[in-house]
Design a protein that fits this description.
Elements: E1 20-23, E2 26-29, E3 47-52, E4 55-59, H1 65-76, E5 83-87, H2 93-96, H3 99-103, E6 109-112, H4 113-134, E7 149-151, E8 155-157, E9 164-168, E10 178-182, E11 187-191, H5 207-218, E12 224-227, E13 233-234, H6 235-258, H7 266-269
Parallel strand pairs: 4-5, 5-6, 6-7, 11-12
Antiparallel strand pairs: 1-2, 2-3, 3-4, 8-9, 9-10, 10-11, 12-13
Helix pairs in contact: 5-6
């Protein structure tokens, strides 16, 4: 299809729900950003897909069954190639609850085993909260599910006629968080490891592991990053922004502790 390439800084073409070509065969489907509410239907996170000569790899599945259907529609608008697998980058509702729409079409959901365990332990409550926030109708058909395929370490998928690297660095922004890299187009899907123009979520993070992962991401030579939230940006902007935030966070916490602030009071004092 005749999609034009978007610039790295984000363009008006990056409207929520429409596929934006970032490199030949590599597309981002932007979320709205912000917090989930009944106006944006919770579709706040970015998704995307990579098209090869033998199929498509989807990256994340959206917030709900209806959102998953919309993402599949965005893929169909670009290519008739079959979707071979959907990768889940991390355990947040806006990236995984569209999985049922993919699975009913026979598309397997693949995630790290630690992401699957965290999802199983937490996401029933997440789903309940989403229903309360968005209402029943936008969440119709949305349900918990189990991953069809699990993996434990980094791998290169050769499913679609071009290599796609699935990168796991150990516990970083989350216990099973991954990035997805298309070396042909130079596009990196950062998932929970990289957000743009948004304060990173540190709830499940290991800061030392996250900093190490960012260094490894920087060594890839990616041209463009699709962050979990926010516009597509250059790799240096995305990685550098998160590195600076984590460094400032670490410095602030160390300062507070050195000044005698109770660990219980550090979150409020930050």
């Amino acid at each position: 299809a005749g999609a034009t390439f978007a610039g790295c800084a984000g363009t008006p073409a990056q409207r929520s729900g429409q596929a934006v070509a970032l490199a030949p065969g590599v597309y981002m489907v932007p979320g709205t950003g912000g917090a989930a509410d009944d106006q944006n239907l919770g579709r706040i996170g970015n998704a995307g897909f990579i098209v090869g000569g033998r199929g498509v790899i989807a990256v994340d599945t959206g917030t709900s069954y209806a959102h998953g259907q919309a993402l599949l529609g965005a893929i169909r608008a670009v290519t008739d190639q079959p979707v071979r697998v959907a990768l889940i980058t991390h355990t947040r509702p806006e990236f995984l609850f569209g999985g049922a729409a993919f699975r009913e079409r026979g598309i397997p959901i693949r995630m790290h085993s630690r992401t699957a365990r965290l999802m199983a332990s937490r996401c029933e409550a997440c789903l309940k909260t989403l229903r309360q926030t968005l209402g029943e109708e936008p969440m119709r058909g949305t349900a918990m599910y189990k991953a069809d395929e699990l993996f434990e370490q980094s791998e290169t998928l050769e499913l679609i006629g071009r290599p796609v690297r699935v990168l796991y660095f150990g516990h970083s922004s989350g216990p099973g968080d991954i990035a997805v890299f298309d070396p042909v187009g130079g596009v990196l899907f950062g998932g929970g490891l990289l957000d743009a123009r948004r304060i990173p979520d540190i709830q499940d993070s290991d800061l030392a592991g996250w900093k190490k992962a960012l260094g490894e991401l920087a060594s890839l030579g990616a041209k463009t990053v699709v962050p979990g939230h926010g516009p597509a940006v250059s790799a240096s902007a995305a990685i550098g922004g998160v590195e600076r935030y984590l460094a400032q966070l670490d410095s602030r916490v160390r300062h507070l502790v050195a000044a005698g602030t109770s660990l219980l009071d550090v979150p409020e004092a930050g």
